[in-house]
Amino acid sequence: MIRHLIYFMFLIVLWSCKQPTDNKSQKEGKPTQTKSQSTSVEHTNDLSFDYDKFEIKKGQLGEIKIGMTISEAEQKFDGLRKEVGQATDFGFGGGSPAYLYYDKDDVVFGLIPALDTEILLFIIVASPRLTTINGLNPNSTVKEISKQYPKVKVYQNLMNSWEEISDTSNNWDFVFMTNEKTVGDYPDLENPSELKNMDIKADWITIK
């Protein structure tokens, strides 16, 4: 009888010693519960305009070409904000709009269609980050332009008194919105002038 009692007590002690170990095993087997956290990922559709792909060429800016529609032209680029201005702001009459494309607050270029159509007639290139195939840009100085066109002359636009240096082989005009200080002298308004003030910068290039 005593033997049975001792044996029974031994089993009780053995069971009580094993119990914490089993509980610990159960706790270790469960994943730790933590307060759920939500991670917010900011998705943006902002695209950057790739200036390197938009070289100023004869009749075109990158893949934007004179003669295509405005809709077709807008499929050739991303990353710019669009505003609508007037063609008269760039010296053209007739009442056509000027579709202007901005990188932040800076105009990169503008597209001007023929009157009452969507057909692209002129491209206004304004950003100095865009360059011609011969290395000039819309803010090049008269001196820099003259190095590429040694015998070139400057014309005065009789409509607004702005001045223009033309590359007739590529159909570009370097436009100067000059006032008191001018690129040339015009005693005879009908005739072009030699280049006089070499430090004046162009305001934009018109692709025709």
Description:
With 208 residues, the protein is α+β, with helices and mostly antiparallel strands. Helix content is 19%, strand content 24%. A hairpin with a 4-residue loop joins strand 9 (163-167) and strand 10. The chain is globular, with a radius of gyration of 37 Å. The N and C termini lie far apart (118 Å). The model is unreliable at 1-45 (pLDDT under 50).
Q: What characteristics describe this protein?
A:
single chain, 208 residues, alpha+beta, 8-stranded antiparallel β-sheet, 19% helix
Q: Quote the beta fraction.
A: 15-25%
What level of helicity do the residues show? Answer: 10-25%
Average pLDDT rating: 83
Counting DSSP H or I runs of 4 or more residues, the number of helices is: 3
**N to C succession of SSEs:** HEEEHEEEEHEEEE
Q: Between the first and last Cα atoms, what is the distance in angstroms? A: 118 Å
Q: How many strand segments? A: 11
- Describe the largest sheet: 8 strands, antiparallel
Strand order of the largest sheet: 4-5-6-7-11-10-9-8
Spans of at least 5 consecutive residues whose pLDDT stays below 50 are 1-45
- Gyration radius (Cα, Å) is 37 Å
Sheet/helix structural class: alpha+beta
Query: What characteristic shape results from the CA principal axes?
Result: globular
